Amino acid sequence: MSKAFTGGFLVLILGLLASCQSEEEIKRQKYFVEGLRLYTQHCANCHQPDGKGLEALYPPLNGSDYLVNKEKVICLIRYGMSGPIEVNGRRFNRPMPANNQLTDIDVAAITTFIYNKWGNEKTITDVRATTRVLDKCRK
Ligand code: HEC
Questions:
Q1: Roughly how many angstroms between the first and final C-alpha of the chain, as a whole number?
Q2: Residue 44 Cα to ligand 1 middle (Å)
């Protein structure tokens, strides 16, 4: 193989990788923007636009140690939750209403938004993964 050919081939591969990456990035941004819109509409009243929650009434999502269990989070977004919980060492105990009107795609977008914004993730929680989790907790 000539050097020029090898070089051209490398450039081609790198180009393909770059375009592939930016497609992923575009998809992530779509999920994020849609997630932000839905969060603002369905969640921000209680958890606040900055995700820091409200006093002892509504727990924070921003910096919440509860986010380590993403499956639980996906389920409670759709089905709500009740009973005492602990977030960052503070107790909360007030029911969160269900959001049965949210589709699996909506839940995936909100989850992506929360974990990208406040959970250090840079990847999407796609709709297939979300549906798999929701199937387990479907009520
Ligand atoms: C009516 C107020 C209200 C709304 C609206 C609401 N939540 Fe909650 N949320 C709560 C309360 C209260 C709790 C604590 C539940 C408990 O004590 O069992 C909670 C708990 C949580 C938790 C787990 C604890 C934590 O802080 O990490 C997450 C995650 C969460 N909510 C996300 C959401 C998302 C996403 C939405 C929008 C789809 C939403 N909530 C809408 C009141 C609300």
A1: 61
A2: 10
> Could you read off the pLDDT of 58-108 as tens digits, one per residue?
999 999 999 999 999 999 999 999 999 999 999 999 999 999 999 999 999
List pocket residues of ligand 1, CB cut-off 6 Å: 42-43, 45-47, 58-61, 64, 66-67, 73, 76-77, 81-83, 85, 87, 92-94, 96-97, 99, 110
The pLDDT score that the predictor gives to residue 1 is 56
Model confidence at 121: pLDDT above 80: yes
Q: What CATH number is attached to the domain comprising 112?
A: 1.10.760.10
**Cα separation of 16 and 29, whole Å?**
20
Residue 94 belongs to a domain: yes
For ligand 1, pick from 36, 39, 42, 47 the residue to mutate: most ligand atoms within 8 Å of CB: 47
